[in-house]
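Hey Z.,

So I finally got round to the magnesium ion thing we talked about over coffee. Here's the setup:
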Amino acid sequence: MASADGGSRTFTGIGVGRGGAVGPVVLAHAAPRIPPGEPSPADPEAAKARVAKGFADVASSLRSRADAASAAGVTTLADILRATAQMAEDPALLEEVGALIDSGTGPAHAVEQVVDQFAQMFLAAGGYLAERVTDLRSVRDRVVAKVLGVAEPGIRPLSEPSVVVAEDLSPADTAGLDLENIAAIVTRTGGPTSHTAIIAAQLGIPCVVRAEGVGSLVDGDVVAVDAAHGTVTRDPAPDVRESIERRVELLAELAADDAPAATADGVPVQLLANIGTSDDAGRAAPAAVDGVGLFRTEVLFLDRSTAPSIEEQADVYARVLETFAGRKVVIRTLDAGADKPLAFATQPDEDNPALGVRGYRLVRIDAALLDTRLAALAEAGRRTGSSPWVMAPMIATAAEAREFAERARSHGIATVGVMVEIPAAALRARELLDVVDFVSLGTNDLTQYTMATDRLRGELADLLDIWQPAVLDLVATTAMAGLEAGKPVGVCGESAADPVMALALHGLGISSLSMSASAVPVVRFALRQHSSDQCRLIAEAARSAADAPQARAAALALVSRDVREALGL
Ligand code: PEP
Ligand code: MG
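And the result:
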């Protein structure tokens, strides 16, 4: 089928990764429409039973998809699906729907009203809960479809490599994707931190989110998706197709390159993987990475209502250490709170959770939580005969860094560091480095706190940009402190995955770069084409710029033409 307004047209959004694809559009099915005159149920008990069955069926299908995702090693997706199934099984939801049906509301409207009330509560709570609203609404749409007896919303089976175009994708939609035939994903809403973007990055599927105007695409339109440029082109010209095809071939070649990372003049650069689970470790270990630069241990326990025991934690940490035997592994202690709420470690009544008792600050109210984790890390090190590097998140002062280092060393941990995620810590990095062995910049939070911009707000993406010169200044201050102290300063925020930023970070004096494993080949390639002096010039050009777009443009102008062309920069 051709587009109503026909012809070639390019839509722009935010790209995830550097890949691309050309293929026919398959539209995700819209949510069911509830007829306005839905009658009061003649038999309220039967209507309630139908709704209960709807919720139960949806929960059980989510759980089987979660199991399939676990079996395929896609653990982030499995976790999201299990959390969504839990929402579908919430007895409070069913109870309130039942009460509305008893008072004469039609069952589909009752489901809609109650879920919308819950969604409002989630939005008001903000942070992680607000991010789950898309998932909650996907449960609503599936249950309503079952109650009305119409086709479930989602994506039809794919018979050839296709580009799925949607408003946004729910975890259930992504779980149902036929990975063999999914060439790319395009969404009209969402943002770089939405789960569609996270899952696409994890699965290595080219993706463009927040693509304005793609609502005009119809099934069968041929589009070229270019994640590097964040563009979706309908009826692409041959040169657009060819440039994407060339880049996809190059990315496959780069992924096969396992030479140690170094600049053109032979200065080695440590490239490390960010992981959240032992499954992630299993996937990252065969890649040519120098180890793990950030193991986010809280990811393991997101769905737990009680703190895990020393034994249970030690088992997981030991598995990761064994998987990376002989390589560096940096493990972070619990970073709960704000965007990472954990039932057993989050303060329920904070007005500003991102500024509250989160990360290392939890030691003030529950020191045992930290001691248990340190004991488990030390035990995992002993068991595997390895020596993990351990660091604390959300450190604000040198006093906190000293206190953490003493605690960690008292458990027998030899290499102790802290994260620099708060501007105060960056400004005083020299004092921090007097008391710890290394620091690691968490550029996601450092940008959030420097720019006073919630990292979950997609609409403030222009402020939440590591290219903001103020953020680069703080990175530079920290790197300089490391060079003076002769101690390592790494970056473990996802910013290191951008090859241009990776060059700038090396130029600023950062000693290791940690990112999702799939980004490592591109960064290795970019580093190899530039000398350390060129990287320094790139960093200086960015820092001298007036704002974030100019900083990136100034850096990019100094990147070799070959790299720019090859990576579509
Ligand atoms: C960061 O803040 O950059 C970081 C690496 O930690 P997280 O994203 O887990 O908060
Ligand atoms: Mg952080």
